[in-house]
Amino acid sequence: MTTRAITVGVATLGCRLNQVESQEMLGLVEAQGFRPVAGAERAEVYVVNTCTVTGRADVSDRQLIRRITRERPGALVVVTGCWAQTDPQAVARIPGVDLVLGNQEKYRLPELVAALLAQRPEHQAVDGRGPEIRVAPIAEARSVPAAPLARVAGRSRAFVKIQDGCQHRCAFCIVPAARGASRSQDPEVVLDRVRALIEAGHGEITLTGVDLGHYGWDLLPRTTLAVLLRQLAEVAGLRWLRLSSILPAYVTADLLEVITGSPRVAPHLHLPLQSGSDRVLRLMRRPYNTRMYRTLVERLARDLPDLGLGADLIVGHPGESEADFAETRALVSGLPFSYLHVFSYSDRKGTESTRLTDRVPAQTIRARSAALRQLGREKALAFRQRMLGRTHEALVLEARDRATGLLSGLTANYVEVLFDGPDRLARGFVPVTITDCRPEGTFGRLEGSIA
After folding, report:
1. In the beta sheet, which residues pair with residue 243?
2. Are strands 76-81 and 45-50 parallel, antiparallel or unpaired?
């Protein structure tokens, strides 16, 4: 396609799924003769993969795009992702942007970049036209494209996208407008991807998606996430399998049996909560209530005593009263969370929540968010302290801790532990005894002949 190896760099904002898709785009361009670059190396083409889940995300998108166009004059700049999908005209108005791609069109990146480079060999605008916009209605998307694997040398952890889009219409959420309806990757494609990653040296695989629990409902023949997990658990060489996030309403008896019964499934789950008030959950149009959530967590904690459990919380949704917030704090305090992700509510254009009038003052939102984040820090420390003196297997990450220079490992229940050891251990699994837990980190020592 190209006469020389044109360099392409990708900058990613937002969620883990965006990071996975950025890797997929690098795989696509690499397969077509481009050369992916990373870090400080300059590129001739920059792709910005954007997020739009909050108002702050849009600001970050703009700042990154403007920084790239300012610091890399002459480079061709492509903007894709969720902000590009939901507001392509706003993206196109940023000076220096050459191409705007929707979330499905990003899989045509090599073709569209090559065409644009052919028009602008010296990066000169053609007839004074603005950026080219290729954004189709995401509601028309019916499939999850399969991209070739990018070279992921040096990365300890591997991620596989098995699903995209969302069937729910939560009142506050812009994701369906950015991602479309739920659609699933074919199980054989997922299995082939996992086998290839294991062959490349990745013993841990995390399954990613937007509405992960809906996996398989749209396929013919229909299947389920539980069936897929059982198939993946049989793949030779797999050590740990993780789920990125799943709504509690999707945790069926069959799925629960796999999660709690398979030694391949890591004892770590992320169950979005958003609010501990049933009244606010109804305003949010969430597909569960606090009784359902509590019952599930208590069952999981009983069957998986070492469970690492995370949750998302939104503070300040329109209509959230002091009593509602008190219910959220009480529920969170009483459940065995190991970490929390706390978000301040922000309006997303076109969502139902923007039409609600009972607004929570910004100062109140900040105070409530700070209180929940502090509670999250306390629960995280208490969870890690219960691990003191015990030996856990840890996946050694590729990058050493910047502050201490120690190796960094991730336990099955999703605790990062720092310890001394040689670089050759990276991407391997090692036994580590937890020796110290502080607010700033968890520390351990290697065991056995490796030490």
Report:
1. 207
2. parallel
CATH fold, domain 152-266, is Transcription Regulator spoIIAA (3.30.750)
pLDDT digits over 427-447, tens only?
999 999 999 999 999 999 999
- Residue indicated by tokens 């300040």: 316
Answer whether residue 152 shows pLDDT above 60: no
CB 24 within 8 A of CB 18: no
Question: Of all residues in the chain, what percent carry a pLDDT higher than 90?
Answer: 88
Strands (DSSP E) found in 95-244: 99-101, 132-134, 158-161, 163-164, 183-184, 204-208, 240-243
Q: Compute CA distances 209 → 147, 215, 252, 353, whole Å.
A: 15, 9, 18, 24
Q: Please state which of the four CATH numbers 3.30.70, 2.60.40, 3.40.50, 2.40.50 is assigned to the domain occupying 391-450.
A: 2.40.50
Average pLDDT value for the chain: 93
Of 254, 243, 231, 236, the residue nearest 198 (C-alpha): 236
CATH number of 7-140: 3.40.50.12160
Q: Check if CATH label 1.10.240.10 holds for domain 271-385.
A: no
196: phi > 0 → left, psi -120 to 50 → alpha, else beta; which? alpha
Contacts with 354 (C-beta within 8 Å, 6 or more apart), sequence order: 347, 348
pTM for the whole thing?
0.93
